[in-house]
Specification:
Length: 316
């Protein structure tokens, strides 16, 4: 049965994973909470494991085997998307423009709203990536559940033999300051990217690296920071404790390296006679959901820096 108000073609778990609106709470996301689905036509599919789908953000881990691709090209009417590669080397393709990019582990591909996109695996190793769509992957009226084919994809067919498609002028990323002034417009303002309808590759050197905290410091490197989503890599040095923070949007944590401790603020913070505080310990590969409005901080108790891929959407 469908949730009340959802249109035909909308899976029941959309907007309700791990919790429906109004019932969100902090939790470690375990494998038994994932929702699996295949995207694509038979023989051209990508396997997805959704670990978060709320009214603010959608996140899934997908796997593409060697020598394969997915079909039809993706297309999101209601949000931007970003792929962050955990394993392998991907070839990103925009069939409308013919743009083609190769990117690997630690790189990301920004996919503006209504921009067609595909991933091809031209290697002998699988691709594993985290996909994030915000603010919505599908609308409650069902719009966006049927993905149309690209009638004339711009494949290369030899010298002076390009197939048809959509020719768009090249878009150059603006020169932005590498400081807090660029939060919300990195690597370019969202409306500009959506108008250009071009894929953008963000490598580690292209991230917006900022020192988080005034008295306690960790490093946060934004892959993208826009009006729709904020994604990046948290680096917590040895023995570091971040300052408390609270977001207007939902937050999702995926630990990339090491062990991250996350402490949730409570009424005990105002008590000087209680030295015991609950926290969550996240191992490499573990994921955590923190609803909007929940105050929290990050801690590193191991002998190596800890890295985590963190998403907040739609607002910081």
């Amino acid at each position: 049965m469908k949730e009340s108000g959802k249109g035909d073609g909308i899976p029941e778990w959309i907007g309700n994973t791990p919790f429906p609106p109004g019932k969100k709470r902090v939790c470690r996301i375990t494998r038994d909470m994932y929702v699996g689905f295949l995207y694509g036509f038979e023989t051209a599919q990508v396997e997805n494991q959704v670990f978060v789908s709320t009214d603010m953000i959608f996140m899934a881990e997908w796997t593409l085997p060697p020598g394969s691709h997915y079909e039809p090209p993706g297309y999101h009417l209601h949000g931007d998307e970003c792929y962050y590669l955990l394993e392998g080397e991907a070839t990103g393709f925009n069939p409308e423009t013919g743009e083609t990019f190769t990117f690997g582990k630690g790189d990301a591909m920004i996919i503006p709203q209504c921009t067609r996109h595909q991933i091809f695996n031209m290697t002998d190793k699988r691709i594993v990536a985290i996909a994030c769509v915000a603010p919505a992957i599908w609308a409650d009226d069902g719009m966006g559940t049927i993905i149309p084919r690209v009638e004339a994809p711009r494949f290369y067919k030899g010298r002076d033999k390009l197939s048809g498609g959509l020719a768009v002028p090249p878009y150059r990323l603006p020169e932005l300051k590498r400081n807090i002034d660029s939060i919300g417009i990195w690597p370019a303002p969202g409306p500009e990217l959506r108008k250009a309808k071009q894929l953008v590759i963000v490598r580690p050197r292209d991230q917006l690296a900022l020192i988080h905290g005034v008295e306690r410091h960790v490093l946060f490197s934004f892959v993208v920071s826009s009006d729709f989503m904020h994604l990046g890599v948290l680096t917590a040095p040895v023995a570091s404790v971040s300052e408390f923070e609270t977001h207007e949007g939902d937050e999702v944590i995926n630990v990339l390296e090491g062990e991250l401790c996350v402490r949730i603020s409570s009424f005990k913070e105002e008590r000087s006679d209680d030295a015991t505080y609950p926290h969550y310990k996240l191992l490499e590969g573990n994921k955590m959901f923190i609803p909007a409005g929940v105050t929290h901080q990050y801690m590193n108790f191991i002998n190596n820096p800890v890295k985590a891929y963190i998403a907040v959407a739609p607002r910081l």
